[in-house]
Benzoate-CoA ligase family protein (Plesiocystis pacifica SIR-1), 552 residues
Amino acid sequence: MSTSEPAAEIVIPDRLNMVQFFLDARLDEGLGDKAAIHYHGDPALAADPGRTLSYAELVADSCRVTNLLRELGLGIEDRVLILMPDTPAWVAAYFGILRAGCVAVPANAWLKAKDYAYYLEYARPKAVIVDASIWPAVDEARRAEGRHTKHFIVHDRSAGQQWSVPAGTVDLAKALRELPGEAQTEPTYRDDFSTWLSSSGSTGNPKCVVHMHHDFVWNTIAYAQRTLKLTRDDRTLAAPKLFFGYALASNMLFPLSVGGSCVLLPHRVKPADYFELLARYEATQFVTVPTTIAKMVAAAEEGAAEGKKLDKLHSLISAGEALPARVYRSWRDRFGAEIYDGIGSAEMFHVYITNRPGDVKEGSLGKIVEGYDYELRDDAGKVIEGTGEIGTLVIKGPSAGLCYWRMRDKSRATFQGDAVVGGDKFMLDADGYFWYCGRGDDMLKCSGVYVSPVEVENALIGHPAVRESGVVGYRDDAGLEKTMAFVEVHDDHRAQLDDEASEAALAEAIIEHCRGQIAAFKAPRRIEFVDDLPRTETGKIRRAALRELAKD
């Protein structure tokens, strides 16, 4: 395999619980009183105000979670599902789970009951820590698939004003008030299971990547500390939420590993509003995705950034989808803060190719992070020698996950020792910069998140007007991928296509229907009605033909 420039070896001790590396070591460094978390608070909840937590307070709260789990009978290797918005309780729960030797399974907090039922059956968590706002969907899910889960731990941020802790569940807030703030840390090994990260599956159901304590520490040193050179003075703020591995690292693990701090936002934020938040919290690094950057540039042109001091902001971290060069230039020319675009994956934990301080080539994904190796393979599986040819990326590095849980065939096809065989196509230029060229399968990547066409099509077909559909991606005016659905309607709805107003109303109704069936970010942004979908001789929808239609 081709390799990056030699770097000092990263040595991970055999005995390792990553809580000690990311959190407890800050107390040993005398940073107990330093701010670890700046919590914005939920604007919709008077009982959930903004506040700042020190490292000492965060360590104590994580110990209380550990003590709670042990009181409930959980121990090493037991899985705990986390379903919460970004709050200090999320962070305390995550580290408390690991301190107990349990395995954390963060999951998307914006899903439906059927999605949570899948997680309960697939991950088989012994306990679930869930925000009270999400409880109704989880309650429905547990009635369908809750036989493996012994304990539901509910966090009510409203202090009983809007929600409550249901009978038969455990009150997390009460535990954080009453349990001891000290606990013994389970002396796990570097190769013990630590966290399962979700990676979207081809059927719409996630695949959980099994990661060990070692993986998180190794990538943090290689990428966050050595490549991005984060310091104790950094304060991060993120658009993605902590349940994404991208933000879990970039807006929690990375800053805490160097004694910095992070800003947590429990609510959804409009792109235009990030200017005020970045200024208020004097963030030094904004963790985001290209879609949000493009929307912020557009909002700035309408005055959203006026009067907002961003002088502390030195960089943006961008990943999840390719950053168009013109979006990069628009941001850089207006605000000065550099954008380090890169690519990573749940399979490899985090970013392994990136632009970096002092080395940015606009439009590219940058160079490989030191310590990782790579191959580009052509469609026949042959290694591409030299530069300028498009191939499938095979990335190799010590942060590779072990497997997809309970998916033997997919695991063997993807994980080959420390190498991960992906589905993305890249080109390497003569200067060693990687350029993203698209995916080799039908998966979409919208707003930094993989979206399965099959899942969207299944939601579409539930609308009474939809006979059949085909879902592909299209590029918006900023060059970012969005979801488009080509739809055949039933004969009794064809009259609604006779005039533009009726057609537009039907399209909006179908989109709203999808938002009620699947997570809103997966729903199509555009509907195009067609008389007949293009098909192969065997009747399968020709997605390649739909992609060509989408370009037009």
Remarks:
- Residues 387 and 429 are 5 Å apart (CA to CA).
- The two ends are 40 Å apart (CA to CA).
- The chain has 15 helices and 27 strands.
